[in-house]
């Protein structure tokens, strides 16, 4: 990933001094153009790094610049030790490297702060995996990670719907994990696309490099893509009356339904009218039936009649 590469570039210049762009490109397995872009990114971030072209030129740090881990206050140290290694990073195979890096940071700190690690780690654990979600197989993740790091074009075989498959040559811009599901962000036919990595049946790294779009930022693209995906997600809107008895538990029961009701709503009426949004007609009916008389469907009529029909069948069945 780019952050890893920027740190590696900085460490190379810090430990080895001036290097040519070609030497850095070969060591980091990227193009020279990528090296110059990384140098510019470090400079914008405040690192005194520069590059000169031509004979005798190269990339270097000004005034023997050195990174420093000093200056961390106690609250920052506490926050650092709350960091755990997420499962997706273990899938990338960098979990042990991160543990080693944290160990080096710890050893560089004063003994005043080192005791905080033994105090905090047994008390804070961050689990980012959602409930009841099985882990998707991603056998080609390591190969994709290698291609992304090296800006190398790849050929993938992708599983489509109904057992159909497609083969494409793509430019792998980055990898994203969301709720422990991995996605490949890539360019194909002049357009940035997103593919679920568990559906990639085969991948081959090709010999040629690709040039990344200079104005592309992975985090910005992903945020916009997720927003578009959520907006285009199918919704089935329901106008309903909810029993006032459910009001204190509204957010607990309906947090995933985008309920249109103010959290501070207070009412002495027996019923409160609001709107609920489901993915499908069937999902709305099944969910609403689960609350019995506490929810009454007002609109649409088709859903109201279907709920009545299902409820009548249940009553008739148990009465018989």
Brief descriptors of the model:
41% helix; Arc Repressor Mutant, subunit A; alpha+beta; SH3 type barrels; 3-stranded antiparallel sheet; 320 residues
Low-confidence stretches: none
Q: What is the approximate shape? A: elongated
Predict the CATH topology of the largest domain. Answer: SH3 type barrels
Structural class: alpha+beta
How far from one another are the termini? 65 Å
Indicate the percent of residues in helices.
40-55%
So what's the CATH class of the largest domain? Mainly Beta
Tally of alpha and pi helices: 12
Order of helices and strands: HHHEEHHHHHEEEEEHEHEHEH
3D structure, described in words:
- The protein is an alpha+beta fold and 320 residues long.
- The protein has 4 domains: 2-64, Arc Repressor Mutant, subunit A, CATH 1.10.10; 74-120, no CATH class; 141-232, SH3 type barrels (Roll), CATH 2.30.30.520; 236-319, 2-Layer Sandwich (Alpha-Beta Plaits), CATH 3.30.70.
- 41% of the residues lie in helices and 23% in strands.
- It has 12 helices and 10 strands.
- The chain has helices spanning 2-16, 21-28, 32-44, 74-81, 87-92, 95-108, 111-120, 141-150, 218-232, 250-254, 281-289, 301-319; strands spanning 49-52, 58-61, 152-159, 165-178, 181-188, 191-196, 200-209, 236-243, 271-278, 295-299.
- The strands form 3 sheets. The protein has a 5-stranded antiparallel sheet with strand order 6-5-4-3-7, with helices on one face. Strands 9-8-10 form a 3-stranded antiparallel sheet.
- Strand 5 (181-188) and strand 6 form a beta hairpin.
- Helix 2 packs across helix 3.
- The protein is elongated.
- The mean pLDDT is 82.
């Amino acid at each position: 990933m780019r952050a890893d590469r920027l740190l590696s570039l900085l460490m190379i210049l810090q430990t080895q001094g001036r290097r040519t762009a070609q030497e850095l490109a070969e060591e980091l397995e990227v193009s020279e153009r990528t090296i110059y872009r990384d140098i510019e990114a470090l400079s914008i971030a405040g690192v005194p790094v520069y590059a000169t072209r031509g004979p005798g030129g190269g990339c270097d740090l000004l005034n023997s610049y050195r990174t420093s881990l000093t200056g961390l206050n106690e609250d920052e140290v506490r926050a650092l030790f709350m960091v755990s290694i997420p499962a997706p990073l273990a899938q990338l195979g960098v979990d042990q490297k991160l543990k080693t890096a944290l160990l080096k940071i710890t050893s560089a700190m004063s003994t005043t702060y080192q005791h905080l690690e033994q105090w905090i780690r047994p008390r804070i654990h961050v689990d980012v995996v959602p409930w009841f979600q099985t882990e998707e197989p991603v056998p080609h993740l390591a190969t994709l990670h290698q291609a992304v790091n090296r800006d190398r074009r790849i050929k993938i075989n992708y599983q489509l719907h109904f057992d159909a498959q497609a083969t494409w040559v793509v430019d792998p811009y980055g990898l994203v994990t969301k709720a422990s599901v991995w996605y490949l962000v890539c360019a194909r036919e002049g357009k940035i696309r997103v593919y679920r990595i568990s559906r990639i049946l085969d991948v081959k790294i090709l010999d040629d490099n690709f040039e990344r779009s200079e104005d592309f930022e992975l985090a910005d693209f992903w945020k916009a893509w997720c927003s578009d995906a959520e907006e285009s997600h199918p919704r089935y809107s329901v106008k309903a009356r909810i029993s006032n008895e459910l009001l204190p538990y509204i957010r607990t029961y309906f947090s995933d339904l985008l309920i249109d009701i103010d959290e501070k709503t207070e009412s002495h009426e027996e019923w409160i009218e609001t709107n609920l949004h489901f993915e499908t007609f069937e999902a709305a009916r099944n969910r609403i039936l689960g609350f019995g008389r506490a929810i009454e469907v007002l609109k649409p009529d088709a859903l109201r009649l279907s709920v009545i029909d299902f409820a009548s069948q249940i009553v008739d069945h148990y009465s018989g």
